[in-house]
């Protein structure tokens, strides 16, 4: 019963995510530090500071949940809202994610949100974490992680879901998925992302051992793209961003899964009027098999996190086809193979989330 009421609350929260926020001011706007020229207004919330630069189309998003940027429910929710806001504003094409807290990029899951909490709270928290994952992993924005501090577990998840990672050269700033050492098992979609980034054998070792890599090793294994002196992290992230944004259309919107698959005939890229189809729509036409969800491989915990209860196949089938086909999944910017269960699962999760959301016109 407690679980059921928790789920109802969580569903309401999905409809109005800001209802989750306690003591938070959203949408505050104030001049950016340093005077601020055209469009240089900053906004954000209590735990997420956004410094937008309309001229370049890039916003710097700073996590500020001192002392260690633990991913509390509030921080997760505020991050999702801030990203959504930037995605909906066509001025912006890229976001640099960084920390406003000294020495720590993000300490990962806020363990106080899990330990000793009731199942309803854990389900709500799990859902919020997944929502952030989906929002970053499938973002239409270019995301660059400017990692200016320690980056364990959930911090590394955020970094992994970005297109590019720049790490400060400080041996104390280690990065990796160390949750195994805490008895938390990484969901397989997270494992797959690790594999996509650092390869199979390295992931196998690092996940099992719960390895945290110091900068030089993180660079060597490919977990980060650049290691630079601490005072150059932000400027390097901006240079990387410029490189990514310099890719002209249509390439810039189609890097990622589509880019790594066979080229599509032109009639799949354009509609009858010659307008270019959104990347996700083109991908769906090219790879209809992606819409065939492998329900049997649904991870029960992941599903439980979304639904708040173990879903039956009957229930999933009732929810999925219409939603998935009506609203194809957004194409992410991480290279996934056609057969990757991650893709199917993300689609499934998204579809399930949509099932709780009002449909967009
Ligand atoms: C419920 C379902 C979840 C669904 C999730 C879905 C998918 C993903 C699944 C799993 C992957 C993710 C797992 C995790 O993220 S688990 C968390 C792993 N994090 C860590 O191991 C980091 C632990 N912390 C540190 O290593 C260090 O604190 C630090 C970040 C390097 C900073 O070091 P520093 O010396 O600067 O600070 P302190 O160590 O003194 O810490 C200050 C203060 O913060 C407390 N604290 C530290 N980490 C956490 C944390 N993760 N959550 C909550 N609190 C934390 C620490 O105890 C200190 O508290 P105090 O009261 O003593 O001041």
Automatic annotation (TrEMBL):
Any one GO BP annotation for this protein = fatty acid beta-oxidation
Keyword check for Mitochondrion, yes or no.
yes
What are the Basic and acidic residues biased-composition ranges?
A: 265-283
The EC number(s) given in the record are 5.3.3.8
GO annotations of cellular component type: mitochondrial matrix; mitochondrion
Q: Does the record bear Acyltransferase in its keywords?
A: no
Any one Gene Ontology MF annotation carried by this entry is:
delta(3)-delta(2)-enoyl-CoA isomerase activity
Q: Where are the coiled-coil regions?
A: none
User: One Pfam annotation, family name?
Assistant: ECH_1
Q: Which InterPro entries match?
A: ClpP/crotonase-like_dom_sf (IPR029045), Enoyl-CoA_hydra/iso (IPR001753)
The entry's keywords? Acetylation, Fatty acid metabolism, Isomerase, Lipid metabolism, Mitochondrion, Transit peptide
Q: Which PANTHER family match?
A: ENOYL-COA DELTA ISOMERASE 1, MITOCHONDRIAL, ENOYL-COA HYDRATASE-RELATED
Per its record, how is this protein called by name?
A: Enoyl-CoA delta isomerase 1, mitochondrial
Gene behind this protein:
ECI1
């Amino acid at each position: 019963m407690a679980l059921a009421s928790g789920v109802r609350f969580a569903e309401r929260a999905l409809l109005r995510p800001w209802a989750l926020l306690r003591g938070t001011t959203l949408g505050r706007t104030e001049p950016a530090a340093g005077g601020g020229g055209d469009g240089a207004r900053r906004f954000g919330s209590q735990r997420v500071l956004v410094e937008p630069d309309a001229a370049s189309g890039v916003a710097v998003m700073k996590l500020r949940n001192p002392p260690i940027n633990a991913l509390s429910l509030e921080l997760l929710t505020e991050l999702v809202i801030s990203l959504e806001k930037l995605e909906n504003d066509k001025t912006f094409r890229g976001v640099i994610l960084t920390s406003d807290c000294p020495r720590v990029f993000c300490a990962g899951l806020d363990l106080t949100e899990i330990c000793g909490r009731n199942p309803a709270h854990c389900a709500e928290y799990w859902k919020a974490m997944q929502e952030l994952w989906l929002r970053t992993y499938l973002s239409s924005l270019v995301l660059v992680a400017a990692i200016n501090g320690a980056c364990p577990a959930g911090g590394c998840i955020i970094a992994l879901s970005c297109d590019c990672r720049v790490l400060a050269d400080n041996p104390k700033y280690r990065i990796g998925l160390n949750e195994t050492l805490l008895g938390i098992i990484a969901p397989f979609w997270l494992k797959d992302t690790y594999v996509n980034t650092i390869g199979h054998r390295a992931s196998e070792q690092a996940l099992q051992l719960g390895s945290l890599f110091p900068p030089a090793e993180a660079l060597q294994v490919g977990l980060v793209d650049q290691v630079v002196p601490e005072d150059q992290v932000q400027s390097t992230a901006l240079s990387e961003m410029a490189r990514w944004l310099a890719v002209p259309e249509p390439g810039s919107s189609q890097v990622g899964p589509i880019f790594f698959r066979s080229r599509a005939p032109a009639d799949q890229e354009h509609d009858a009027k010659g307008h270019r189809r959104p990347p996700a729509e083109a991908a769906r036409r090219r790879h209809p098999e992606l819409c065939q969800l492998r329900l049997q491989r649904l991870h029960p915990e992941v599903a439980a996190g979304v639904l708040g209860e173990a879903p039956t196949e009957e229930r999933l089938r009732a929810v999925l086809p219409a939603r998935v086909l009506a609203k194809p999944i957004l194409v992410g910017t991480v290279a996934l193979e056609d057969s990757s269960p991650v893709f199917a699962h993300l689609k499934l999760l998204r579809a399930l989330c949509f099932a709780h959301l009002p449909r967009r016109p």
